């Protein structure tokens, strides 16, 4: 199985993001934009020294657990890690195992790897909503 989670974290950390109003926004060097899956599901995936992840450090190449946040819709695959289980789309999910995140990504059709590579080369991620 391909580690889509760690690939996403390493490929998009600190990247520029094109906002809905067409402006370019620079993310902090340790932050990642929300992941948008093929079926429209989106979720924030963060792993850095201030996130609920392991190891809890910036710019690690391989995380074992990551922080998820604010999924676009309920998903029972990650529910047990919800900080506030009464509001599953408005909460964070701490220390979610990467293998669970990879299953979540696959469940929602994955993400467009080809477009990600094109965007990475231009250092501007397109087609992603940043709140």
Your description of this structure?
With 131 residues, this protein is an alpha+beta fold. The chain has one domain. 22% of the residues lie in helices and 20% in strands. The chain is built from 3 helices and 7 strands, in the order H-E-E-E-E-E-E-H-H-E. The strands form 2 sheets. The protein has a 4-stranded antiparallel β-sheet with strand order 3-4-5-6. The protein has a 3-stranded mixed β-sheet with strand order 2-1-7. It is globular and about 35 Å long. The termini are far apart. The relative contact order is 0.24.
Strand and helix order: HEEEEEEHHE
Q: How many helices in DSSP terms?
A: 3
Distance, first to last CA = 31 Å
Strand content: 15-25%
Q: Residue-averaged pLDDT, rounded?
A: 89
- Helix % is 10-25%
**Class based on secondary structure composition and strand pairing:** alpha+beta
């Amino acid at each position: 199985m391909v580690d889509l989670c760690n690939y996403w974290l390493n490929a998009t950390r600190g990247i520029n993001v094109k906002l809905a109003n067409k402006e370019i926004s620079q993310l902090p060097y340790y932050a990642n934009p929300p992941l948008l899956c093929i079926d429209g599901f989106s979720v924030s995936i963060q792993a850095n020294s201030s996130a609920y992840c392991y190891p809890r450090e910036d710019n690690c190449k391989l995380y074992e657990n990551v922080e998820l946040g604010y999924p676009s819709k309920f998903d029972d695959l990650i529910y047990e890690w919800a900080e506030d289980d009464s509001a599953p789309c408005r909460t964070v999910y701490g220390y979610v195992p990467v293998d669970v995140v990879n299953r979540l990504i696959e469940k929602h059709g994955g993400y467009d790897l080809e477009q990600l590579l094109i965007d990475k080369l231009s250092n501007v991620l397109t087609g992603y909503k940043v709140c």
